[in-house]
Design goal:
With about 950 residues, the chain is mainly alpha-helical. Among the domains are: about 200 residues, Rossmann fold (3-Layer(aba) Sandwich); about 60 residues, no CATH class; about 120 residues, Tetratricopeptide repeat domain (Serine Threonine Protein Phosphatase 5, Tetratricopeptide repeat, Alpha Horseshoe); about 60 residues, Arc Repressor Mutant, subunit A. The protein has 47 helices and ten strands. The strands form three sheets. The protein has a five-stranded parallel beta sheet, with helices on both faces. Helix 7 links the parallel strand 3 and strand 4. It is globular and about 110 Å long.
């Protein structure tokens, strides 16, 4: 409590933030929050809301409860002033605001980033409340309490994350609580906590079990006398220090007339219940039968229930119901808050609910739904989710009502951008629909897919749209076929994925539309263009995309033009397509920005980013990534965080920061699994990491697992496996597989992964010295000269394509071509600061020079190998360093270069550093020029000074002049 009050004091001085209290059920989280609210100093505004275990609750309920309390106390004529400009948008989730806003009728906008606008409005309202609170000299700020976050819906958690980002300089403290045990691995709260703690946006308080002395203090407070030591210790062991269970045990013993101060009681036989449920069950059993029946109704209604509804369910007069309520209040089973009542602890409600037989439970849920309709019949809009849940739980007798209200709940969730909740409602509706109602199932699947796609669950959305399309074909529902076909391309989570039957589906949809200019036709044309480009049918994809763009321009529909441009930019994933992709993405970016469509803005930045990576311009690629991150933060979709992590892994791999790449890769796999997203992108990155770290056997294991899954990426995994086996010394044994793979690649490329596959095979080809297949691979890779070998511009970048062309040219003994390609590769890799690939190019370039056998090449080869060895050592790439040393030191190599002998045993790299020292460069400048770390340069300088007996730059410069090294 002291720590929380100190944090509250800091917030009052403008250092707002989030504190999260966690611990097991019954440990005292809610009580601590309640005490914090009570002890908040004078001048603090306290608002509180919580999530509930019950089904059928509306989205954003913790925030709605908190704001509703403020609205209830705020004068109507000051509402807009107190809440600020966010008032109108807030009325979407707080309909009671609407009567207070004269002439305003909210209509939710349609763009996908409208949820962000809602989040902004909630945050602005809370900041406005905090500022108004601080108007007087003794006022402080706003304490927002959010309890039971482990039961919160996904939109509420995303809203909390958005709010947390805005608290740094505000007088707002958000105090939340969540249960530390029992969360599913895929629970959305994990993602929220990871983000809050990773960014330093929240402070965590862990509540632990009470000690024996603390238990004794609780017992003394309850019984009025200090307990015997043995009794206190026994109760502490039995309750395992859990305050809730301890209190229930003490209540039971006191109710039995036990004297807790009697030392003999410690050894007396107690009838100890087996766990907290039995303790609660016994406490409930002591109530009157009428009160128990009333609490059965209350447990069905949820943790919180209204007097009017429970009275309608009980069928008793108000006085009899009030008598039962008073008995429950007196025993501490329930608590009163305004006109509502709630169970004192969620476990009490759960024990009462679980005690009901299935028939009894279903009957009570039906009674609950009917009672809600009778009591609130004039305005059921806020209660549609509750009605849907009660009718669903009522069983087979209420399916029609359940379907009606479940659909209404999905629509209501969409109105407030709670897409995750809408998807859950549509799934529930689908589960209830009769299999014979094929059109109804088809309509529901389309709605489900749309909600899943908006929530970022693109893989699940893809499955829903595919199922919907199959049903639409079966029943001949052309309108639904078009809707499913249009949804499917948007549900492709990772660009370049191949969807089975996607082209046929879109062709069928196109055939149902008339041939003139039409918005739907333009959309289907664009979707079909994207699908065909995924299968490398470039010519038709180009034609369809161009037709979609031209049609959208003729229609004058800017939103449709943006969609068509997105389709067109997708069709340009091909050799030499990066420059054209940049031009189309530029127009898309401008148009999407004007339309305020942040989803399309993101897609445009992503296309520009990948194009710049292909062109080797990492400076511009990083700028695009930063812009992407800024926009993605507005949308709060976990998919964007995953894609960001994947790109960070790629950049770390490219720079040789392997430990960082490994940590990021593990984090991305964890997040992908929580999202239910396939992890093959991350697994490919893990395989690449193992190869760079000189662990080809582990890389081969990852590749085999990917290959075993089959599918359209099997060829890619097989090429990765071949490269790993080659590095493990198994080149000869994989010759037949290599030959087969090269033949497969001679056909038109099946997808955008093809250049990566060809580059991997180029490495195997060089190891096997296969001149015939080197010619085939050289022709296939030649269109990528001057570019990088990039895996979708986000997963991996293998440096300059000219490196692999150089390998193949050297294999064919085309020495002039080989040297030209290696020089180009070195320049590009150096410009990207791609240190592992600089070293690879230097080593392979040197090996080619040595194979050519010209004496004049020896000096250049040794310089390249020395430089490669330094980078390999600095990055911990032991296999590469060993290979470089073997070429440097093996005297049996006939074409081994003659060593260049420098004075005082200086190496070529040390002479290079000495020359730059003499030219006045700092250590940091030298590191940047050589693309090494500052630490490596410092080691070089130290060795130079020691070898030449110099005490500084001046003496080192004089030495270099004296020895003719400049």
């Amino acid at each position: 409590m002291r720590a929380l009050l100190e944090r509250l004091e800091a917030a009052g001085l403008g250092d707002g933030g989030v504190v999260l209290i966690t611990g097991e059920s019954g440990i005292g989280k809610t009580r601590l929050l309640r005490e914090l609210a009570t002890q908040a100093p004078h001048g603090w505004r306290v608002l509180a809301g919580r999530a509930y275990e019950s089904e059928g609750l509306p989205p954003y309920l913790p925030f709605v409860e908190a704001l509703r309390a403020f609205i209830r106390d705020c004068p109507a004529d000051r509402m807009a002033e107190r809440l600020g400009p966010a008032t109108e948008t807030l009325s979407l989730i707080l309909p009671e605001l609407r009567p207070r806003l004269a002439g305003f009728s909210p209509s939710p906008p349609s763009s996908r980033d409208d949820r962000y606008q809602l989040f902004v409005s909630v945050a602005e309202a809370l900041h406005a409340i905090a500022r108004k609170t601080g108007a007087s000299s003794d006022a402080r700020g706003l304490l927002l309490i959010l309890d039971d976050l482990h039961w919160a819906d996904a939109p509420s958690l995303l809203l909390l994350l958005h709010l947390a980002h805005s608290l740094a300089d505000s007088p707002i403290l958000v105090a939340g609580a969540y249960r530390s045990e029992g969360l599913r691995p895929d629970h959305q709260l994990h993602d929220l906590l990871a983000e809050l703690y990773r960014e330093g946006l929240a402070t965590r308080f862990l509540l632990t079990a009470l000690s024996p002395d603390e238990c004794a203090a609780v017992i003394a407070q309850m019984s009025g006398a200090a307990p015997a030591a043995g009794v206190a210790e026994r109760l502490q062991r039995t309750a395992e220090g859990n305050p809730f269970l301890l209190v229930e045990l003490v209540r039971q013993l006191l109710g039995e007339g036990r004297d807790l101060a009697d030392p003999d009681l410690a050894a007396a036989p107690w009838e100890i219940p087996d766990g907290v449920r039995q303790v609660i069950g016994r406490r409930l059993a002591r109530l009157s039968s009428a009160t128990r029946r009333l609490l059965e109704c209350g447990s069905v209604l949820g943790e919180r229930f209204d007097f009017s509804v429970i009275a309608a369910m009980a069928g008793s007069d108000s006085v009899a119901v009030a008598d039962c309520i008073e008995e429950a209040l007196a025993t501490g089973i329930v608590r009163e808050e305004g006109e509502s009542y709630y169970f004192a602890h969620a476990l009490i409600r759960r024990v009462q609910y679980d005690s009901l037989s299935l028939p009894r439970r279903r009957a009570l849920h039906l009674e609950a739904a009917e009672a809600i309709e009778r009591v609130h019949g004039r305005d059921l809009t806020p209660l549609v989710a509750a009605l849907a849940a009660h009718y669903r739980l009522a069983g087979a007798d209420a399916v029609a009502q359940a379907l009606r209200w479940t659909r209404a709940s999905a629509d209501a969730a969409l109105q407030v951008f709670a897409w995750e909740e809408a998807a859950a409602h549509w799934q529930a509706a689908l589960d209830m629909l009769d299999s014979a109602d094929q059109r109804g199932r088809c309509e529901t699947l389309v709605a489900l897919g749309d909600a899943q796609s908006r929530a970022g669950g693109h893989d699940r959305a893809r499955e829903s749209f595919q199922r919907a399309a199959a049903l639409a074909r079966t029943v001949g529902a052309h309108d639904l076929l078009v809707r499913a076909a249009l949804g499917l391309p948007l549900a492709v989570r990772l660009e370049g994925d191949l969807l089975h039957g996607q082209v046929d589906l879109l062709e069928d949809a196109l055939g149902t539309l008339h041939a003139g200019d039409d918005v739907l036709r333009a959309r289907v044309l664009g979707g079909l263009a994207m699908a065909l480009s995924n299968q490398s049918h470039w010519a038709r994809a180009d034609a369809l995309a161009a037709e979609a763009v031209a049609m959208a321009r003729r229609l004058g529909d800017r939103a449709e033009l943006a969609r068509a441009l997105h389709a067109q930019v997708h069709t340009l994933w091909r050799p030499r397509g990066a420059e054209q992709r940049l031009r189309v993405a530029d127009e898309l970016l401008r148009l999407a920005g004007e339309l305020g469509d942040n989803e399309l803005v993101l897609l445009a930045h992503r296309q520009r980013l990948t194009a710049f990576v292909e062109l080797g311009n990492l400076t511009e690629a990083d700028r695009e990534d930063a812009a992407y991150v800024r926009i993605a933060e507005l949308l709060h979709q976990p998919l964007h965080r995953l894609l960001r992590l994947i790109r960070l892994v790629m950049r770390a791999l490219l720079a040789g920061r392997f430990a960082e790449a490994e940590g990021l890769n593990e984090g991305s796999i964890t997040l992908a699994r929580r999202l239910g997203t396939p992890t093959w992108w991350m697994e490919w990155q893990a395989m690449t990491l193992m190869r760079e770290r000189g662990r080809p056997e582990e890389a081969a294991t990852i590749a085999r697992a990917g290959l075993d899954r089959g599918g359209p990426r099997a060829l890619l995994w097989e090429c990765g496996l071949a490269a790993a086996r080659c590095e493990a010394g198994q080149a000869v044994s994989l010759r037949s597989d290599f030959e087969r793979l090269v033949e497969t690649l001679r056909t038109p490329p099946p997808n955008v992964y093809w250049p990566v596959a060809a580059a991997l095979l180029a490495q195997v080809c060089a190891a096997l010295r296969d001149t015939d297949r080197a010619a085939i691979l050289y022709d296939l890779l030649r269109p990528y000269a001057g570019m990088t070998i990039s895996f979708n511009g986000q997963i991996a970048c293998y440096g300059a394509a000219d490196h692999f062309l150089g390998l193949l040219a050297a294999t064919m003994a085309r020495w002039d071509d080989a040297m030209r390609h290696f020089e180009t590769a070195l320049a590009m890799n150096i410009s990207m600061a791609a240190r592992p690939h600089i070293a690879h190019s230097e080593q392979d370039y040197a090996a080619a020079l040595l194979r050519r056998g010209k004496r004049a090449d020896a000096t250049r080869a040794r310089e390249l190998l020395e430089q490669a060895r330094v980078i390999f050592d600095d990055l911990g790439m032991a296999r590469g360093a060993a290979a470089a040393r073997a070429l440097l030191e093996d005297p049996r190599t006939p074409s081994s270069p003659l060593a260049v002998v420098y004075p005082d045993r200086l190496s070529a790299r040390e002479v290079e550093v000495l020359r730059m020292l003499a030219a006045g460069h700092s250590n940091r400048e030298i590191a940047a020029i050589l693309v090494v770390s500052d630490r490596t340069v410092a080691h070089h300088v130290e060795h130079i000074y020691r070898k030449i007996d110099a005490r500084g730059r001046a003496e080192a410069t004089a030495y270099a002049l004296r020895r003719g090294l400049l």
